[in-house]
Amino acid sequence: MISNTELPSTRPYLIRALYDWCSENGFTPYVAVKVDNSVQVPREYVQGGEIVLNVSMDATSSLKLGNDFIEFKARFGGKPREIMVPIHRVMAIYARENGQGMAFPVSDEESAPAALSAVDSPALESMDTEDKPETPSPSNPGRPALKRIK
User: Which runs of E-coded beta strand occur in the chain?
Assistant: First the structure.
């Protein structure tokens, strides 16, 4: 019997599934990333230690949604950049148009993906329109609310 600490993370599989769902339904997949030294992104676009990346086919080239990294090429301010994000630094993946997606726990400490295996189950936030409005919180203006996909 395999223990939970030996199982591979579900995070890359869920990210790929939600990416496919967004793409197949005409939505734009966005990935929110907690930036640290292991994340290769243009630092001038990082705000509050986080960056949101458009990972749609129209915005990227050579996109690879691997088990350990998300890698692609994109233009930022007209300049081509190579982006590499460790899967364990992904905070969320969601559709830009409606905010539906999934959030994941990310430790503020720099740690290897294996160290996150005990807390690697996704933290889902359900945002039903009857219960809560879709307005952003005052502390994070402009950040979309996430919805659980049923």
Answer: 29-34, 50-54, 61-65, 69-76, 79-86, 90-95, 101-103
Sign of the dihedral defined by the CA atoms of residues 18, 114, 124, 41, in that order? negative
Any bridge partners for residue 46, and if so which?
none
Taking alpha carbons only, the member of 27, 25, 17 closest to residue 95 is 27
Tens digit of pLDDT for each residue in 21-72? 999 999 999 999 999 999 999 999 999 999 999 999 999 999 999 999 999 9
Q: Which phi and psi angles does 88 have, rounded to 5°?
A: -70, -5
3-state secondary structure of 135: coil
Q: Who contacts 137 (Cβ-Cβ below 8 Å, separation ≥6)?
A: 143
**Measured between alpha carbons, how far is 84 from 38 in angstroms, rounded to an integer?**
9
Length of the chain: 150
Distance CA 47, CA 124 (A): 23
Other beta carbons within 10 Å of 83: 23
